[in-house]
Amino acid sequence: MSKSENRIDYPKIFFQRRKFFKLFWNIYYLVAMETAGSLSCFGIYIIWLPWKRQVL
Known about the structure:
The chain has 56 residues and is mainly α. The chain has one domain. 96% of the residues lie in helices and 0% in strands. The protein contains 1 helix and no strands. It is elongated. The N and C termini lie far apart (52 Å). The mean pLDDT is 73.
């Protein structure tokens, strides 16, 4: 009985975690964009571009 209950319960917990993670990521992204601005994003792009070239 307990195993079948866990099988029904687990997807609910996973869905809640996924929902929470999505919400957290949206807040984090907004805060990062607000505080960092375009300058740091441009800096990350400069760092990321040579790495992309090495991989590809």
